[in-house]
Design goal:
The structure is a single chain. The chain is α+β, with helices and mostly antiparallel strands. It has a single domain, classed as TT1751-like domain (TATA-Binding Protein, 2-Layer Sandwich). 43% of the residues lie in helices and 27% in strands. The protein has 5 helices and 5 strands, in the order βαβαβαββαα. A 5-stranded antiparallel β-sheet has the order 1-5-4-3-2. Helix 1 packs across helix 5. The longest helix has 19 residues. The radius of gyration is 15 Å and the shape is globular. The two termini are 22 Å apart.
Length: 131
């Protein structure tokens, strides 16, 4: 178990999980800025990659604005990323915990923002994982 990550097993197909994830992002008033289908991208580059793996870039613009106005170098770890990928015989949803990422910048004054985003992102992942 990696304490830097928050991960959950997910029920359903990767498309079903993606649909639930997109709905959860919207319900929590975050924006889905983009997604990358890593298998598709790698195969397009001539790299045979068989596993499903999709990476979603998620952001709450109001929180991001406040953090960036305090410390612009945090832009190097924004937006938050959620990955949905095959693991064993199922799917997993995972993210690097925002509290861990922001701690690297030595700005304890931003811990409250990181905690709020982390709780929201956990809820989004839990909802996307399904029952």
């Amino acid at each position: 178990m990696n304490d830097n990550l928050y991960s959950r097993r997910a029920n359903g197909t990767i498309d079903e999980v993606a649909t639930r994830l997109e709905q959860a992002v919207q319900e929590h008033k975050y924006g889905l800025l983009g997604s990358i289908d890593l298998r598709e991208k790698m195969n397009a580059k001539g790299v045979d990659f068989a596993s499903d793996c999709r990476v979603y870039e998620v952001c709450n613009p109001q929180i991001a604005k406040g953090v960036l106005e305090t410390e612009m170098s945090i832009s190097t770890v924004l937006p938050c990323r959620i990955s949905v990928f095959e693991r064993g015989d199922g799917l997993e949803i995972s993210m690097l915990r925002p509290s861990v990422l922001l701690a690297q910048f030595g700005r304890p004054d931003l811990a409250e923002h990181a905690g709020r985003v982390e709780e929201d992102m956990k809820s989004i992942i839990d909802q996307a994982a399904g029952a």
